[in-house]
Amino acid sequence: MVRWRRRRVLLLTVFLSSLVLLEYHRREPEELRLSDWFTPSKQRPDVVTMTSWLAPVVWEGTFNREVLRRHYEGRNLTVGLAVFAVERRARAMLDLFLTSANRHFMAGQRVTFYVTVEASSSKWNQDKDLALGPEGVAGGRRSLQVTTLEEDSLWLGPDLARMRDLRENIVSRIGREVDFLFSMTSTQIFRGDVGPEALGTLVAQLHGWWYFRRPWELPFERRPRSAAYIPFGQGDFYYDGALLGGTPRALLGLVEEYLKGAERDLRAGINSTYESHLNRYLLSNKPAKLLSPEYNWDATLLPPPQVRSVKVSQRLASG
At what angle do helices 274-284 and 158-169 cross, to 10 degrees? Predict the structure, then answer.
């Protein structure tokens, strides 16, 4: 009799636990299938919209904004945007970058802007009125954090300094504070909305200029001694390093591999470029989502017909 009562109690406990789990799963939003929000076949036959490894290439007209909005609005996400603004030209455009990002980047989501400036500009954020807050961004709370970089950190170049700074910030705090993270430079300006269609585990930006060139013209690193070496005949796309995105963990993996390769080339006396190492990494670690050239178009060039909506433009600061 005692054994039977224990069995009944165990069965009741299992049953109640199953009900709790069922209720929990009912409350959790279901993950979107690609076909729920991405329907490019009829809308954009003029461009590549799917890679050979079945990652979507996001162009205007390929995604359903309303479906994405409904899916993400209740998920309590925080999206980070790390912007590197060192040296006079980049710093001159920082206010314009942040103002445009506050208006167009991830409207309706909670966003933290992580700004890196030189130590000599440590008071840059004082007396700034960027209207960060719900009133200007469709309900998404905004915040701003500023870190400084010593000028002597730039002696190997801004790209290496940017990636070292990004690694340090992800490890020390960003990795615990956000669900998704994007890294950009302040010489970019948001011209249109960039929303949850850009979110993904690892998001790569197609280079606006090289997307329209022939495969054998792409400027991959062809020197076998370089850690960024890509043999002729290999390479999927040429990616632009001005914009990177993904989860903090995925970006940290990319940054660490870049730093290893770049520092190895420096020791070997090879002057390889940041984008060469980025493209080497993304050849072996396929991105889960690609952003079209609409998400970083050269402001000095007239967009071709394929670029229907410039969402981010790139311009070097003058002076």
Answer: 50
